[in-house]
Design a protein that fits this description.
alpha/beta; 41% helix; globular; 8-stranded parallel barrel; TIM Barrel; binds ligand G3I
Length: 341
């Protein structure tokens, strides 16, 4: 049967994966899957601030450059991830802010330089940039701002919400052709009040109206079979972003379940084993049904190398390939969805 990328190409939908540079090149089966199955790649960690500027003023682009070169050799596009995020910041920066040796004005200049330097370094090679990541409050966050931004977010707290429009402007200046995305989780398809979706929607409607160069919204798509998931709501939420004149993308899809043991990653129940590919399929078909949805990316290649078990103990089985790098039912389900168009 055809690869995911070949099937996606036929309907102009890029199918992607996050790539871990520790495996790329050195792990032959891993490398073959990345090359053969996917038409767009995201660096799982290699483009984050702590990776590219571990020491202030000294850039290390090596791992990210390797991925971009690999993508070029394999006719793949690249999603750049991510420029403004509270996590995986270099310790020189967080320490400096904590102990007051970096003032707010300096922090703003440091961020401006970071965005400009990184986007410039990769200019012409990045299809979509995740310019800002995860700055909106979840229902459990204690200090949401009235517009739904997370008042405790490192960047919002230190620089104010105006910094968001600025990072999009700075990124656009450095690479006018890259598509600039806002990326977050639980911003589509969530039952209940759907408050996070609404906040993101309304905030970016305003930025679009103001002419800020934002081009897209990325829903990460980190699902867990123990919670309900509404594929139709997911689709209509993506469509609502699209109706703002924005592109949309599913950027970090994985679907975790409870597993018996973290090495083997076999689901604890048949129901979970069936729900896993089903929820993957719901996300992909929603993307296929929304004209503005341009890419669908899984957050990792195989269950042996995923952030999930380390963060949500007792869960796993989140990806398209199992711990032995064999394709799972989720893989075949997506293949079939792409086949059907
Ligand atoms: O780089 C060190 C390495 O030197 C050390 O030997 C090793 C030992 O633990 O740790 C390495 O750092 C780890 C890094 O991944 C690289 O492997 C960190 O501990 C670990 O926390 C980090 O996890 C990443 C996580 O973001 C951190 O926030 C995951 O790989 C990555 O999948 C995950 O991705 C995020 C997206 O960027 C944003 N959305 C949510 C998603 C899942 O959390």
């Amino acid at each position: 049967a055809d690869s995911l990328r070949a099937l996606g190409d036929r309907q102009k939908l890029a199918v992607g994966t996050a790539v871990d540079d520790a495996h790329l090149g050195s792990d032959q089966p891993y490398t073959a899957i990345v090359a053969d199955q996917f038409s767009v790649v995201t660096a799982e960690n290699a483009m984050k601030w702590e990776s590219v500027e571990p020491t202030r003023g000294t850039y290390d682009w090596a791992a990210a450059d390797r991925l971009v070169a690999f993508a070029g050799e394999h006719d793949q596009q690249v999603r750049g991830h991510t420029l403004l995020w509270h996590n995986q910041l270099p310790s020189w920066l967080t320490t400096g802010v904590d102990n007051g040796t970096i003032t707010k004005d300096q922090l703003r200049e440091i961020l401006h330089k970071h965005v400009t330097d990184e986007v410039t370094h990769f200019r012409g090679k990045i299809w979509q940039w995740d310019v800002a990541n995860e700055v909106f409050a979840n229902s459990w966050d204690p200090n949401p701002l009235p517009n739904g931004l997370n008042g405790d977010d490192f960047w919002i707290k230190n620089l104010g919400e105006g910094v968001l429009a600025d990072v999009f402007r700075w990124a656009h200046q450095a690479d006018p052709k890259a598509l600039l995305f806002y990326n977050d989780y639980n911003i589509a398809g969530q039952d209940g009040s759907n408050a996070k979706f609404q906040a993101v929607h309304d905030f970016f409607a305003k930025l679009v109206a103001q002419g800020v160069p934002v081009n897209g919204i990325g829903e990460q798509g980190h699902l867990d079979t123990q919670y309900g998931f509404d594929g139709k709501l997911f689709q209509s939420d993506l469509q609502s972003y699209g109706d703002l004149g924005l592109k949309v993308a599913v950027t970090e899809a994985d679907v975790r379940t409870f597993v018996n043991n973290s090495t083997e990653q076999v689901p604890t129940s048949q129901l979970a084993a069936f729900a896993q590919p089903y929820e993957f399929s719901q996300m992909l078909t929603a993307c296929q049904l929304v004209d503005q949805c341009i890419s669908f990316t899984a957050w990792g290649v195989y269950d042996g190398d995923s952030w999930i078990p380390g963060t949500f103990a007792g869960t796993g089985y989140g990806l398209l390939y199992d711990v032995n790098k064999a394709p799972k039912p989720a893989y075949y389900t997506l293949q079939q969805d792409l086949q059907l168009g």
